[in-house]
Amino acid sequence: MMEEASNRLDDYRVYPKRWIYLLAVSMINFSNGNTWITYAAITFYTNNYYSNNNAALFFNVIFMVLSIPVGFLACWWIDKFGLRSAYHIGTWANFIGNIIRLIASGTFMDPSIRFPMAITGQAIAAFAQPFVMFLPTKLAAYWFADNERAIANTLSSMSNPIGIAVMYSLAPVFVLNFSDILIFQNIAVTAVAFIPVILSVFINKSKPPTPATPSRDLDVQAPPFLKGVIACFKSKTFIVLSICLGGGVGLFNALYNNLQPALCVKGYNPTFNGGMGTLLIMSGLVGAAVSGIIVDKWGEFEKVMKVSFCIAGVAAASLSICINYENVEWWVALSIFVFGAAGFSIYPIGLEMGVEATFPVAEATSTGLIIMIGQIQGVFYVVMTNLATGKPDAHDMAIQTCVDTNDQLHTVLTWKWPFLIWLGCISCLIMGFVVFFWPKYKRRNYEAGKKWNDLN
């Protein structure tokens, strides 16, 4: 009897190929992340080069806007046709979008068509975003063991913000004049986008020959897409998680969009400003890795998320204060480090928690809904905070490092009120999360019960 039970448990296995899949999904998320944020750290250069005072904002917002309608398509597609086809769609759309942007940014192009062509390329790359950002939980669920899922999801999902960080930090260093936008920004980003195309050769299956865990066994049937969506919104745990975690994603997007202009008006140099974007993500990678290991070993999703959310709130308050002062690099850096480490530790395990709370709903559905809700909030936060900007005083105009020509001085703004609004939104999300988030671990409970039954 025991031997028979052992044989049933041996039906669940993992394959070495899962690491190639993890690398491929991580690389396309990395590439799409730096495609998205290409121009955010060089707002003023971008607006001038493309002859549009809102060019950098449009490049950013189009990713968030398109992610909503395309997100529903991606959710349905991934759950219907699997990981393989979604990966190929995302990879090729991302690469083609970059090619178009590269051509559009050339000095040989008529300046009047540069921006329309570039925003077209950006839109095509934005079409890829839901297809690649919804993959990590699907990959972790199908290809990794139950004690590997959180760390696999962490590595693949965090690759997107790492891609953002790399571009955010390097852009101000290398883009010293307008022609360098062609030389560095687009050639480099397009070259990175080609790597997932090469790796696509190895992505030839959506799932392994045998399941990695009981939750992916043949007797577990996910409901159809629309029923899955309805099931998600019938779950109180999922509603709280999607609003609070999605809101955190949206507020992160707003911070990344606003950080560079907020720092430069206080006289911080472009290299420091870009470095803060990198610090935000890299500290987040450390925090996410630690939290992933904790939940893989002990499964303490709720405690880790609540503690991390509260610490992130304290750091956000600190940042909202110090962003209004000059020559306090240490304070800005410390606030961003703590905010990144605590805030990003929530993201990958929050996506895993969405799968836990809605099991057996397909992974791409729960993940996609959380990210789409975050993007909707992100558009709102970016627009709202940009509307709350003000005119700088004479001292700020004298020390600002945003622009170096008098005809661009009207684009320099102060960010005191936008960051206070940003802090208020974070505080509301934290209070709602701590009070109302009491999850049930449906997937883990199912797997524990299945293993117990197989042993008896």
TrEMBL record:
Keyword tags: Membrane, Transmembrane, Transmembrane helix
InterPro entries in alphabetical order: FLVCR1-2_SLC49-like, MFS, MFS_trans_sf
PANTHER family in UniProt: MAJOR FACILITATOR SUPERFAMILY PROTEIN-RELATED, MFS DOMAIN-CONTAINING PROTEIN
GO molecular function: transmembrane transporter activity
Transmembrane stretches, start-end: 20-45, 57-78, 85-104, 124-145, 157-176, 182-203, 237-256, 276-295, 307-325, 331-349, 361-383, 419-438
Name of the protein this chain belongs to: Major facilitator superfamily (MFS) profile domain-containing protein
Chief place of localization: membrane
Pfam family name, one: MFS_1
Subcellular location: Membrane
Biological source species: Caenorhabditis brenneri
Amino-acid biosynthesis as UniProt keyword: no
GO cellular component annotations of the record: membrane
UniProt keyword Ion transport, yes or no: no
Membrane topology: Multi-pass membrane protein
Lineage: Eukaryota, Metazoa, Ecdysozoa, Nematoda, Chromadorea
